[in-house]
Design brief:
The chain is an alpha/beta fold. It is built from eight helices and seven strands.
């Protein structure tokens, strides 16, 4: 019996937080992983850690908003690890402000990284998925898609990720490709720590206040998201597509 080839996954925004946790989990699950991020040092270190643990990985620096860099990065992963058939669109930024204070740059930057970045990455990776007749796409949305004060740009981007996901599921299903979205609630990351600093609260107080409003009485961790991503890219999730799953410690509308 011949051993099946190792599947290859690409994770964007893999330099820290949720992306780093997802990359580590997929590597533990047996995937070869391409870690992509604007921060070259972080993804190179992340790849080294995976290799040191016995896995296969490569770190590639890129701006997901640049089509040329995206195509080059995906090609590099394919050449070094094999055809990428799993894509985690996690790269994201925040530029929070109330509407009347928000600049065009605040709007363009957030919509660009989340939506254009995910479009460019998916367009590049689907060429491998459709050829292989198998693939998994997981897009990171957020509970902010339902609306969140001071995040009109981020909310619009994360709501857009949900429509993007559902259309991918319709278009790519016949090629054996599923597409789903994970919508995290409060996850303790550098990004939420920055939010706490912006509003003048200590991170511990910020987390405690958030936890008090969550049914399970705790905030989430990057590993909570990685656990679901692990399932959604598995063989066992092959009949789940076009779904938005809220990972928020309780129900969301």
């Amino acid at each position: 019996m011949t051993e099946s080839p190792t599947r290859v996954a690409i994770v964007t925004g893999a330099g820290q937080g949720i992306g780093a946790a997802v990359a580590q989990r997929l590597a533990a699950d047996g995937f070869a992983v391409g870690l992509l991020d604007l921060n070259e040092a972080n993804v190179e270190q992340g790849a080294k850690d995976i290799v040191a643990a016995g896995g296969k990985a490569v770190g590639v620096a890129l701006d997901v908003c640049d089509a040329g860099q995206v195509d080059a990065a995906v090609t590099k992963v394919a050449e070094e690890l094999g055809a990428p058939t799993v894509l985690i669109n996690n790269a994201g930024i925040t530029r929070d402000n109330l509407l009347f204070k928000m600049t065009e740059q605040d709007w363009d930057s957030v919509l660009g990284v989340h939506l254009k970045g995910s479009f460019l990455m998916t367009r590049a990776v689907q060429a491998y998925q459709t050829k292989e007749k198998w693939g998994r796409i997981v897009n990171l949305s957020s509970t902010s898609a339902l609306g969140n004060r001071g995040q009109v740009n981020y909310s619009a981007a994360k709501a857009g990720m949900q429509g993007f996901t559902k259309t991918l599921a319709i278009e790519l299903g016949k090629f054996g490709v599923t597409a789903n979205a994970i919508a995290p609630g409060f996850i303790a990351t550098d990004m939420t720590a920055a939010t706490a600093e912006r509003i003048g609260m200590s991170f511990e107080d910020f987390k405690a206040a958030a936890a008090s409003q969550i049914p399970v009485q705790r905030v989430g961790t990057p590993e909570d998201i990685a656990n679901l991503a692990s399932f959604l890219v598995s063989e066992g999730a092959g009949f789940i597509s076009g779904q938005v799953i809220y990972v928020a410690g309780g129900p969301k509308d």
